[in-house]
Amino acid sequence: MKLWVDADACPGPVRDILLRASQRLKVPIVFVANRALSLPRSELVSTVQVGAGLDVADRHIAEAAQRGDLAVTQDIPLAAQLVPRGVVVLDPRGELFTEENIAERLSVRNFMQELRESGVMTGGPSGFSAQDRQQFAAALDRELTRLVKTGR
Question: The pTM is what?
Answer without folding.
Answer: 0.86
